[in-house]
Specification:
Homotetramer. The chain is an alpha/beta fold. The protein has helices spanning 13-26, 44-53, 65-78, 90-109, 124-135, 144-147, 152-161, 236-249, 274-290, 293-311, 318-330, 361-364, 376-397, and strands spanning 4-8, 29-36, 58-63, 113-115, 140-142, 175-179, 182-186, 215-222, 225-229, 232-233, 254-260, 266-272, 336-343, 346-353. It has two domains: 4-172, HUPs (Rossmann fold); 177-291 and 333-353, Alpha-Beta Complex (Argininosuccinate synthetase, chain A, domain 2). Helices cover 43% and strands 20% of the residues.
């Protein structure tokens, strides 16, 4: 049997043309592998057939929506993961899952190489190849767009010459990646960072400037995971889908950022992540009630590092695994309800309660019944400020 290469297939221009390009460049048969992570917009059966029509010897589709939500998005939620404090890792979270299936499929079929449709400028090439290297170091990774100089113009010309069933054309100015957790849009007029996004860019969110009545929901968490919305039990996938609807209808989750790519380029990106932004806001506030002060402070430094590792394609690294253990430990008491009000592009917590709460009304109140002994504060301040006082005396004496 001829050697095979397993291609991460999206159904778009680059990966569709990449099937024939890989065959010509390597002489290998191409197996197309499409992973459903809730990207919507196209029937996966159509994508499966398109790969065959474009020359794939076999076309495989995997429904991984629940796995993506449970095993990839939920850890990000527990980590309150926001790269550069704003981007909830929409695309970065799906890459290790896709890479996992690339590696396992290649092993099952006896293939010695895998491929993806990334360019040499982006982050995803690193994410795919670093993940495959961690999972199956014996496999070779190929990238036809990067390695074989498959430019966009050449891809369009190749598709036309071979009558490939590709809808894209020179009139499609944007590069779009999406999954159930969000949507990423780049290139075209957005490459000028002075140009404002236009409404046509958005599909997951409604215009926040349009007047609507506020939406209020109660999100119930169990150890950091949303398990019910307005009292109705939900799976992680259902929680994301429902919050996409509620938050998206209020224009929550639009992000316009100049982003520091792993490869050293600054890139202008527009994202939509209504569920991500809303759920993180709720989760953070529940943590404020249930996690002890010093642990919460330290966790914030871990969150930043966790987001950087995932953004940089190191999902399967030892450091990321170790940080996962720390984060899971912090979530033991993150159980309770958060009331979230969404309106005009914002998601604001208006109520919180938990049987695991560290908030003590009798300590916090300034009214009668206060159990906090204020007389202890004077001595505490004396001891707390003692190092500063001693240091200041020395510094003043030296002047």
């Amino acid at each position: 049997m001829a050697e095979r290469v397993v291609l991460a297939y999206s159904g778009g221009l680059d990966t569709s043309v990449g099937i024939g390009w890989l065959k010509d460049a390597t002489g290998k048969e191409v197996v197309a592998l499409a992973i459903d992570v809730g990207q919507s917009g196209e029937d996966m059966d159509v994508i499966r057939q398109r790969a065959l029509d474009c020359g794939a010897v076999e076309s495989i589709v995997v429904d991984a929506k629940d796995e993506f939500a449970t095993d990839y998005v939920m850890p990000a939620l527990k980590a309150n993961a926001l790269y550069q404090k704003r981007y909830p890792l929409v695309s970065a979270l799906s890459r290790p899952l896709i890479a996992k299936y690339l590696a396992s499929t290649a092993k099952d079929l006896g293939a010695n190489s895998v491929a993806h449709g990334c360019t040499g400028k982006g982050n995803d090439q690193v994410r795919f190849e670093a993940a495959v290297a961690a999972l199956a170091p014996e496999l070779t990774s190929l990238a036809p767009v990067r390695d074989f100089a498959l430019t966009r113009d050449k891809a369009i010309e190749y598709a036309a010459m071979h009558n490939l069933p590709i809808a894209q054309s020179k009139k499609s100015p944007y590069s779009i990646d999406q999954n159930v957790y969000g949507r990423a849009v780049e290139t075209g007029f957005l490459e000028d960072p002075w140009n404002a996004p236009i409404e046509d860019l958005y599909t997951y969110t409604q215009d926040p400037a349009v007047t609507r009545e506020p939406t209020e929901v109660v999100i119930s968490f169990d150890q950091g995971i949303p398990v019910a919305i307005d009292g109705v039990p939900v799976t992680p996938l259902q929680a994301i889908e429902l919050m996409n609807l509620h938050a998206g209808n209020q224009g929550v989750g639009r992000i316009d950022i100049v982003e520091d790519r792993l490869v050293g380029i600054k890139s202008r990106e527009v994202y939509e992540a209504p569920a991500g932004i809303a759920l993180i806001a709720a989760h953070e506030e529940l943590e404020n009630m249930t996690i002890e002060r010093d642990l919460a402070r330290y966790k914030r430094t871990v969150e930043s590092k966790w987001a950087e590792l995932v953004y940089d394609g190191l999902w399967f690294s030892g450091l990321k695994r170790a940080l996962d253990v720390f984060i899971d430990e912090t979530q033991k008491h993150v159980t309770g309800d958060i009331r979230l009000k969404m309106h005009a592009g914002s998601a604001v917590v208006t109520g919180r309660k938990s049987t695991q709460s560290l908030y003590d009304f009798n300590l916090a109140t300034y009214d009668t019944g206060d159990t906090f002994d204020q007389s202890m504060a004077k001595g505490f301040i004396e001891l707390w400020s003692l190092p500063s006082k001693i240091s200041a005396r020395r510094d003043l004496a030296g002047k």
